Amino acid sequence: MLNPKPIGFIDSGVGGLTVAKEAMKQLPYENIIYLGDTARCPYGPRPAEQVIQFTWEMTNFLLQKDIKMLVIACNTATAVALEEIKAQLSIPVVGVILPGTRAALKSTGSQRIGIIGTQGTIKSDSYKRALKNKSPQVFVESLACPKFVPIVESNEYASSVAKKIVSETLMPLQKKRLDTLILGCTHYPLLRPVIQNVMGSGVHLIDSGAETVGEVSMLLDYFDIANGPENPQPTKEFYTTSSPQLFDAIAQGWLTNYQEKAQHAKLNSK
Ligand code: I24
Ligand code: DGL
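Above: the input record for the complex with I24. Below: its predicted structure, written as C-alpha cells.
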C-alpha cells in the first residue's frame, strides 16, 4: 500500500535542511514538507517550556497539511518535546536523538562516547539517558557548545575563527579518551571538518540527522507507507516563519537543485 501523503519535517530554522537533504538522497520518491521556525530561531538557549510550546505550534501546522509521518529534525525540540508529541499523535513521530545514540553504541569500542549540542539539548540530558538506558556501563561526557550555531549562521564555519572557537570549546573533551562523538545539533555537520581536525582521526563522528533518515526509511517500510518509482517527481514544499527570500537563499546554497519558493507560515500561538 502506497501512501502519497508527504513526510513532515520541523525545525527551529534552516538547520533541519541537513536532515531534509539526507532524506531527499535516501528517499528520493517521498513527498516532503519542511517547516522552519526561522522567526524564533535559535531554540537552543530557550527554556524547555517555550520550546515545547513552539514545537506543538509547528506540529499542528503540519498536521493540517495531512502528513503521514512527522520528523522532529531539531535536536533541541526532540530533547524536550518528542515524548509528549509522540504520545498524542496517531501518525509515527521520529526524533533525531535515538538514531544517533544507536549509531554511537554501534561505533564505540572503548564504551566512551561524547555528545555535543545546544544548551537546551545538553541540559535536558536526553542523549545521556538514551545511551545509558540501552547500555548502562557506557561512559558518557556531554558538552554544550553555545558558540557553534552562531559561527555557522555567520557563514564562518570554515574560517580560522571557527577553528579557534571549536578547539577552545572542545578542550574539556580532549582528555576523556573518547572514540565516538555525537554531533547532537543540526548545524554541526557544517563544522564537521573542523571538529574532526580538533578531535583527531581516532574519534568517530556521528551525524544524528543522517542516522535519523535510516530510521524514517525503516518505519515507512514497517507501516507499508513508502513511495517508490511510481512517484518519480515527488513534491517539495518549504515553509518559514520569517522571510521566504532569505530561506530560499540558504536552501539554494545547501540543497542540490532547489527550485522551489518557500512560503510564509503563520503559527498559532496560544
Ligand atoms: N546557515 C544557517 N543559518 C543561517 C547560514 C545562515 N546564514 C548563512 N549561513 N542563517 O544554518 C539563519 C538565520 N536566517 C535563516 C533564514 O531566514 C532568516 C534568518 C545552517 C544551515 C544548514 C543547512 C551559512 C550557509 C549558507 C548556505 C548553506 C549552508 C550554510 F548560507 F551553512
Ligand atoms: N536546530 C537546533 C538543534 O538541532 C539548532 C539551532 C537552534 O538552537 O535552534 O538543536
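Notes for the reader.
The chain has two domains: 7-95+210-264, 97-208.
The CA atoms of residues 20 and 140 lie 28 Å apart.
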